[in-house]
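Marked as duplicate of an earlier ticket. Keeping the data here for the record.
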Amino acid sequence: MSFSNNLKYLRKQKNYSQDFLAEQLGYKSFTTIQKWESGIAEPSVDVLKKLAKMFNVSMDELLNEELTDEDDQKIQTSIISKNIRYLRKQKGWGQDELARRIGKSESAIQMWESDKRSPTMGTVEELTKIFDIDINTLIYKDLQTGEVNKSGFASPFEEVTNPDDAAMVFIKHPQVAAFGGYDIEKMSDEEKIEFANQILDSIKFFASKYKK
């Protein structure tokens, strides 16, 4: 349902009515737009290209990413927008160069850096590789001021450092291992520690949505 949700979201962001959008695309009735937004039908590839250009997003973003504010994988913090801009400039890259390296549109970079939209967790992981930076640092630490944002998160820099730490109990659980399709006995101590820290990062990220 990504496309239908995204179309509705982008249309409202532009303050377009269904009638207006239909008219811009050469349709006589808003019912075509209504069908797209309800998931009953989808436009042709040519129309999708027009929509992507109209809303200044890539085809991949329009079809496959969840662009709405309700997406529970969005990072709701302005720190990451500052850090992306800071790290990009440290590399001497323009927004177009970062877009090319991460496989996104230049408009996506502009939206992230202006804090109008946040990248998904998967994209954040790609950014950590491109900038060679720890994910906690990218998300929680203002690289310009050195200030760490701990609001809503408990000990964001706490890490597993020993294969016998309590956090290991979770990944060693037979049912968890079976569900994940991995064999803990075949992992080195370093791999176990890395895996446990990735699990903790994911828990911290998603748990923020449910904190009361």
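See parent ticket for discussion. Residues 189-207 form the longest helix (19 residues).
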